[in-house]
Structures are given as C-alpha cells and as structure tokens.
Amino acid sequence: MLAYTLLILLAGGLQALAAHVKITWDIGYLNISRDGLSTWQAIGANGQLPIPPIYVTQGDILELTAINHLDKPVTLHTHGLFQRNSSYYDGAGMVTECGIPPGSQFTYIIETRNQSGTHWVHSHYGPEAIDGLRAALVIRDLDPKLLDEYDEDVLLTLEDWGQEPSNAMLERMKTTSLGRHPNYPSVLINGINANFSQPIRFLPGRRYRLRVVSMSFTYWFKVRLPGHAMQVIEADGIHSRPSAVDGLDLCPGQRYSVIITARESLEFNYALNVTFHSNFLARKPGLNPRYHHVPIVYRKDAPVKTFPLIEDHEVKWADEYAMEPQDKQMLLEPVDQHIVLNVKAPNRNTSISAHAYGDYAYAPVPVPPLYTALTTGDMALSPSVYAPQLNAIILKHNHIVELELRNSFAPIMHTYHSHGHAFQVVETGPVNSNSSIPVKRFTGRQPMRRDTITLAAGQYVRVRIKADNPGVWYQHCHQEQHNLSGMAFTFIEAPDVMQQTLRVPQEMLEFCRILGHPTQGNSAGHFGSDMTGIDLPLAINGTANSITGT
Fold this sequence. Notes:
- By secondary structure, the chain is mostly beta strands.
- Helix content is 7%, strand content 36%.
- It is built from six helices and 36 strands.
- Strand 3 and strand 4 form a beta hairpin.
- The radius of gyration is 23 Å and the shape is globular.
- It starts with 6 loop residues before the first strand and ends with a strand.
C-alpha cells in the first residue's frame, strides 16, 4: 500500500493538505498483444499498455496532460467525477469540447475536494477507449473513520479486450446477427490475460479494501472470494454503510469497494473467482460464461481450498437497492420534472446496435451543446437551439428530476451512465404489468447513489437527481457499440446559471477552430432555430417518450 496521505490538524478537524499531482499521458499507437493471442494497433500512453493507475488523495488537484500523437482528436473523461463548475473538463467529445487535435496537448484540471473513492479515466472520443486508452483512478479518502476500517488497498481492474481493433469490430457488427458475433473477447485482470492473473498476497487477520473497477465496454463481471466475508462500503465513488455480501456483479463502468478480512490460518490458499458473462453474445461453453481465478496466497506452498459449486440465485450479490449511503442523503422530493425514456430500435439495416435512447439516434453536431448553451442567451432555455439528434433535455436549476428508463426489448441488457451526477437508485420493475418480475424499491432508510446501473431486459429503472450542477452532461449506455450507435441523450442543466459561472478555457475554443467547428450559436453554428447544414436526424421507432413538469 502506497503511503500518500498528507493530513494536518486545522480548526479542530482534519483537512487535506492539497497537492498538485501532475500526470502526463503521451498518447500514441502501439502494436501490441495484450492477451497473448492477437496483435493489433492499440492506443496507449507513454509507450505502454496497460496504462498505470492514477492515485491521488482527496483534496488534491490532478493536472492530467494529454499529448496527442494520434491521427485524430482525443479527449479524456474522468469517469465518476462531477466536474462541478468545470463542465468543459468533462471530456465528452463534441459534447463539452471539440477534442485535442493531432499534434496538440492539453491539461485537464481535476479538483477532488468533494469526492473520493474508486473511478477511472478513459477517452470519450469515438472508440479510442476500446482500443486501450483507459486507466483506473483512485482518490484516497481523508475520513479517519473510513481509514480505520482497513489496513491495505488492493486494486482489481477488469477489462474486455477484442481480437481486432475497434473500427474493424464495429464495422462487422453492423451486419452480424445478434448473438453470432464470431470473436469472443479476452478477459484482462489488472492489465494482463486473466489466464495468467498475478497472485494477491494476504496476511492473516489483515483487513483489505478490494477496489474493483469494471473498465469494460460491453461485458459484465462477477467477483467472489469463497471462504471470506465481504463488507461492501462503496459503489461508484459513493461510500455506503457497510453491508455483508457474498459477491459483486458489475456492468460496464461500475466500481465497488469491499472490505475483506483475511483468515487467521496459513493452512490454505484461496481463489478469487471472476466470471465473465454477457447476454449480448451467444452462450458457448468456455467462452460465455468464462471463469477465471486470481490466486489469493497466504503461504507459497499451501494447497488451494476448494468449495462446492453454488448457483447464482444462492449468492447474496451486492444490491444498490439494499445499500444505504454513508452521508444519509434522504430521498429527493418532491419531484419537479418526470422524464420517461424508452429503449428503441433504429429503422435502418446498417445500425451497429438495434437500440437507442431518445426519439432520435444520438449523433454529434458541429457545435458542442455546451458551447450552444453558453452563447445563445435566453434561447439556451429553448429546445429549438439544440439539434434533435442531441436528445437534449433542459433542466432547471435545483429542480428534482426523476428519470425512468424502460427497456422493453428482450433479451438484451443495457447500462445507463450519468456524467455530472450520481443518481439516487429508487426503483426497478417489469415494463409489462403482466410480468412475474417483482417490483423492487430501495429498502434502506435512504436510497443509495451511483453513476452507472444495469437496465435489465424487460424492466425499467427509476432514478432521481437534483439539478444543482450547471453544465451539459452526456447520458448514455456504457456498452460502447450502443453508445456509438446513438444510445445517448444530454442534460442541458441550468443554462441560465452556467452562462454566469462557466468560462471555457481559450485553448479549448482554439482547438475547435483548428478542427473546423464553430464555438457559438445553435447546433449548426447559426442563431435562432436555423439548423441549415446539419444532417437530418435518424428517427427511432417505438413507444413515445414523455417529459412532464418544468
């Protein structure tokens, strides 16, 4: 465990002695075989993959410099960080910025005063993250009560890794039937082929905080450690009251922390079980699901303890509907705005995905919507200045918003990831009232919060936020092929307030000029509702969406 916490006693309490942590990623192409099976042109930083994790302490200022040696723009998104008062640093390509042009560099300034926990960094420009541009980000806590709960940090990153570059994979998926995709990905654990996972050393009686990060873009992972008790204490950077679980089931983009107390005996070693699974691919023995093991070593020459197999339904999985936040935030109410969005199917044969959120398939437009919101005055409060394909939803400052996402399509699960917010997890249940699936509502005194959640087939999820973070925030499915095919929408949050509080760095505006994008006006770079020059949006079939309240 790296000792990196600087504390001073100030005004009767613990405060962070903030440091400026400077990290540089020299981003370029690498011909590499990460899984030992296939070699292709990936994207790394500083000539390496995996990219080492980033560690900071709460209160630090992370200065993350990206030097772009690709032949296309690049952005960096700090997944899970809210970017309060700095929406322009969110890194969502053509949403909050135009991107860093080839041959240029830019420094993202990431403040961590009000956040800690387990996060990650990845490109948010096209499919660059699928090709390797991703790394874990750990913000160590200052709370002495939390620090007293464990002795050592252990990081476990989980990744899916294709057998070919993303552009080839995505192109082929346009014409490949569901479940018949021929190339099952490899699994990487802590950056290497999961078949060769490096052991984790446990010392008797020691308490370990296992931070599990799904840096996956399509597939789910289950994690269990038989013979050991787990206490879940964090979901997606939000600390929770400790609760006992047997295992974790993570969708793409999710993170958990659990406290594991090592056994007192050196008699046996153990196996941390990691199961790769997806209903996006056809089930195939040895490929989906796929089982891997990380050695937990107490003594080098000790035998591995075996346990009888148990069915998934016998496992007590971590459940956000049963968890409670440590900060005791009550259910947000009353609701000012209720939004219902349905997963829909695009009416084109060449779609990568058969699904999307919103009335239209999301597509980028010439002017990033953040810049539209900042430069159109009072018109920024009107949907008419945002192109239909942005699926823009305008939120009023400090309003309570309830979002209901409905996935009536079987058998495909989806995910929902929110930029700019961690939402309260309120309820899930069947879309069809005749279904035998039970309705599940949060069972604790307060609803848990997180920023990424599974949207199961045939079910809805209902979440709430308070619109207290003025900015433009991308909302999307974190299965990247679905995101890239239009499964996204945008929150235009308090544009009247952001015009008074946000100032985009001049360097970012210059990057837009270099890349040929306007930086003011509506989505087309005009004023008013004139959208001349923008492609017609792709209309989506399916149940109508609804927005009620103002």
